Amino acid sequence: MSAMPDQLSRMTEAMPEVTQTTRTPKMAARDVHVYYGETHAVKGVNLDLHQDEVTALIGPSGCGKSTFLRCLNRMNDTVATCRVEGSITLDGKDIYDNKIDVVQLRARVGMVFQKPNPFPKSIYENVAYGPRIHGLAETRLDLDEIVATSLEKAGLWNEVKDRLDTPGTALSGGQQQRLCIARAIAVNPEVILMDEPCSALDPIATARVEALIEELKGRYAIAIVTHSMQQAARISQKTAFFHLGNLVEMGETTQIFTTPREERTRDYITGRFG
Ligand SMILES: Nc1ncnc2c1ncn2[C@@H]1O[C@H](COP(=O)(O)OP(=O)(O)OP(=O)(O)O)[C@@H](O)[C@H]1O
């Protein structure tokens, strides 16, 4: 959905100013190129994610947002034709190093997908699975505690505490998405990647997930791909605009939506293309 100039000014009125500081990034991508066979999907992207920020990735369909996001926890390893070049670090360490345990990496850098994808198991088991395989609980009581805390942090506890044994798939779409967020949180991630997490949700469920992202901000570095510029303006502190595989411009969300430096960014946010 594209925003018109008057909408943009209304959207940005409520946004706080963010002070620019030089800080060590939680994740840093340097000159990242991604290829699917002959297709050059991401072209030399440099981007930092910070611990206490939500970073929105916006841009027209097919510009490489999801591909780039999936590089950040090596989800693209599962695509046989996909090749990633350049450097991506987490706390300064190369996540593509041969010595990296990818299962461990994906616990530290969790992911929430466009379509809620709970396991075909109970609500309890959906959340308990990760902590169990990562050995985070010594006793059943510890595990119960992790499940309850994760569901609380995901804003779902009160709705499900009396039916933890029912299937996760029986929840509403919005509840399923919050269950998937609880599942990601349960293994103590440091970064959460979200690929259009609200696109399958109705406006009320979307508002709940956005409120949740607002609460999670500060505890995790969050990167979110979204097609909604209103959503990017509401929930992010930084916005990165992608076009044809290039990161055209990145900056404070307020600046990107009010005074973009690049003409392509301006054209996109004012609905001239995309
Ligand atoms: N598994 C794949 N195999 C081959 N090509 C792919 C694959 N996934 C994506 N691509 C191609 O890579 C390019 C970038 O796609 P990507 O899904 O990252 O874009 P996007 O900006 O996230 O798009 P959208 O907003 O529509 O989800 C496109 O040309 C797409 O066709």
UniProtKB/TrEMBL annotation:
NCBIfam families registered for this protein in UniProt: 3a0107s01c2
ABC transporter domain span: 27-269
Name of the gene encoding the protein in the UniProt record: pstB
Species for this entry: Gimibacter soli
Listed PROSITE patterns: ABC_TRANSPORTER_1 (PS00211), ABC_TRANSPORTER_2 (PS50893)
Region (Disordered): 1-23
PANTHER family per record: ABC TRANSPORTER I FAMILY MEMBER 17
GO MF annotation: an example: ATP binding
UniProt xrefs under Pfam families: ABC_tran
Keywords, sorted A to Z: ATP-binding, Nucleotide-binding, Phosphate transport, Transport
Lineage of origin: Bacteria, Pseudomonadati, Pseudomonadota, Alphaproteobacteria, Kordiimonadales
InterPro entries per record: AAA+_ATPase, ABC_transporter-like_ATP-bd, ABC_transporter-like_CS, P-loop_NTPase, PstB-like
Biological process, per Gene Ontology: phosphate ion transmembrane transport
GO CC annotation: membrane
Domain of life (superkingdom): Bacteria
Protein name: Phosphate ABC transporter ATP-binding protein PstB
